[in-house]
Amino acid sequence: MSERKVLNKYYPPDFDPSKIPRMKLAKNRQYTVRLMAPFNMRCVTCGEYIYKGKKFNARKEDVEHETYLGIRIYRFYIKCTRCLQEISFKTDPQNTDYEIEAGATRNFMALKLAEEQARRELQEEREEEANNPMKMLENRTEQSRNEIEMLESLEELRDLNRRQQAVDYTTMLQQYNTGETERERLEREEREDEELIKSVNFKSKPEGGTRIVAEEIIEEVKEEAVDPLPAPPPAKLAKPICPLPAAASKSKVLTAQPLVKRKIPLVLVKPKAAATTKPTATSTTATDIPKAAEVPKTPAPAAGLSLLAAYSDSSEDST
Fold it and tell me: What is the pLDDT of residues 250-273, one digit of tens each?
C-alpha cells in the first residue's frame, strides 16, 4: 500500500537544475509556519490568556542586524484567539529562550526572574572582588577550606571502601547460613582449627639439646589432735624398780610408742598394754621413766661448822 503523502520526488536521468528559472523574491520575505506558544502570555487588548503549547499559524521572518555568536535570530507573529490582536516575539539564543516584544505580556516568569537575579548577583560579586582585595582574600580562604573538607570526606569514603573490600561476604554468609545444621557447623569449625594448627610452624630445638623437666614434690603434714594427758596412777600401785640406764630406757620407750612430729613439746604417754601386764624387773613403767630420766641431784657443799660436828662425833665413837 502506497503512502498517502509522498515526500520523495522522481528526478529523471536528464534532469539539469541549472535550467530551472530562479524566482525573484524579496530580501526579507516572510514564511508561514505552524508553531506552538513557547510560554504563557496574556493579551494586552482583551486580556485573553494564551497558554503554553497552544498551536498557531504564524509568520516568520529574520531579524535584521541582530545575531548572537553568528546565530541568526527569528521573529514570529501570531494573532490573539479572541480579538485577533497581533502578538510578536523573537528567539533568544543567549538564554535558550524566547523574548516577548509586543501585543502581550508574559506570565509565570518566576524561574526566569530567579535566573536573572542569580546572574546579576554573580556579576556584582565579581565586580566587588576586582575592586576590593580583602574580599577576594576572604573568598579564596573560604574556597580553600571547602576544598580541604571535600578532600577529608573523600578520604573517609576511600577508607570505608577499603574496609568493605577486606570483608569476605561469602564466608560471612556461610557462617550465618541457616541451612547449615549444628553438626555440620561444628565439623567445619574443627576442620578449620586443625588447618590452622597445621599451618603454624613451631620452633624446634636442635637434636643434641637436652630438656630438663622440673618436678615439684608436695608433702602434706597431718597434725593429729593431742589427747589430754591421763591422770597419774596412785603412788602405792607403783613398785620400786632399780632404775635402768637412761639410754636403755629411752630406746625402749621409743620402740614401744611411735613418735609423731608436733609443734608442741614431746610428751610420752603410758601404753595400755603396760597397765594390764605385771611389772617385772626388766620392764619399766611410766612412773619409773621420769625417775630414770631425772639427773641425780648433788648435795650442796657442807659448811665449816657441820664438818667440825661430824669430826667431833667420829672422835667420840672411836674412844
Answer: 444 444 455 545 555 444 555 555
Cell of 238: 607403783
Under a CB-based contact definition with an 8 Å cutoff, are residues 274 and 287 in contact?
no
How many angstroms separate the CA atoms of 232 and 230, rounded? 6
Between the alpha carbon of residue 208 and those of residues 29, 71, 143, 201, 307, the distances in Å are 115, 98, 73, 20, 89
CB 164 within 8 A of CB 172: no
**8-state DSSP, 14:** T
Distance CA 102, CA 86 (A): 8
Look at residue 165 in the predicted model and tell me its pLDDT: 75
* Phi (first) and psi of residue 75, to 5 degrees: -120, 140
With CA atoms as reference, report the closest residue to 291 among 237, 230, 236, 243. Answer: 243
Angstrom distance (rounded) from CA 78 to CA 55:
10
How far apart CA 160 and CA 158 sit, in angstroms, is 5
Distance CA 93, CA 112 (A): 14
- Secondary structure (3-state) at 101: strand
Q: Are strands 97-102 and 49-50 parallel, antiparallel or unpaired?
A: unpaired
How far is Cα 161 from Cα 317, in angstroms, rounded to an integer? 135
Residue 218's identity, in one-letter code, is: I
Other Cβ atoms closer than 10 A to 125: 12
Dig out the grid coordinates for 5 from the structure. 503523502
Q: Which residue has the cell 610452624?
A: 201
At 319, list the grid cell: 674412844
Q: Is the dihedral of CA 88, 92, 95, 101 positive or negative?
A: negative
What tens digit of pLDDT does each residue of 39-62 get? Answer: 999 999 999 999 999 999 999 999
CA distances (Å), origin 238, targets 85, 253, 271: 164, 18, 15
